[in-house]
Amino acid sequence: MGLFVNAENYYADVIFKVQDTGNVLISGITNHPALEMQETQELTSKQGKYWKLNISINETFSNFIYEIQLPKNSIINYMKLPDVARIEDSNNGLKIIGTGQNQAFEIILQYHINSKISGNFSYFIYIIIILVLLIGIYLFHSKRIRKKKNIKIPEMTDRQKLIFNFVMKSKKPLTQKNIEIELGLPKSSVSRNINSLQRKGLITKEQRGMSNLIKLSVPPSSGKFREK
Q1: Which of 23, 54, 70, 141 could be a cystine partner for 19, CB 3.0 to 4.6 Å?
Q2: What pTM was computed for the model?
Q3: For 143, left (φ over 0), alpha (ψ -120 to 50), or beta?
């Protein structure tokens, strides 16, 4: 389902209503063409009694909210979800509600439908699933926190700080020409200081046609930069 589109600030607030036939009704608000309002069978597949729901979009979304409505009496066997999610039980079946920021839109679920399941047993299964999901999210975040390391910012000249802060605060890709114009600096000075920042590991420089695309070596949203 992943469609490649040039860099864009994608967002989504969508609902996926999964039918027991495998059809998926998509509704809501988004600016990504793959999540526009539609009815499709391309998101599900079936092997034996097990259904698989696969919604994988490689592009990064600045933020998204989603709700998945599974058929009545569905039992989840496996799930891969973005960081924050919860499961709700209703008279019409399970609902999975989640959010994400600055990441790909990737949801994979395996489930099967059991029309003979009793109410008490169903409730017990759902509680187990919720506990497993919460434990998984906790372990994931704990592991990421343990691995997270701060990057000390090396000493910079005033002009290097000016360029670095401008690149860090920018919400769109910058060319070397953008920096020269916006900061009113000579081309030679910008080029020299960008090379210095690149050697210090603070920014990267990528050739794009006749110009260079300048960006941070680590995204500012990671929270890894800190002063000495």
Answers
A1: 23
A2: 0.49
A3: alpha
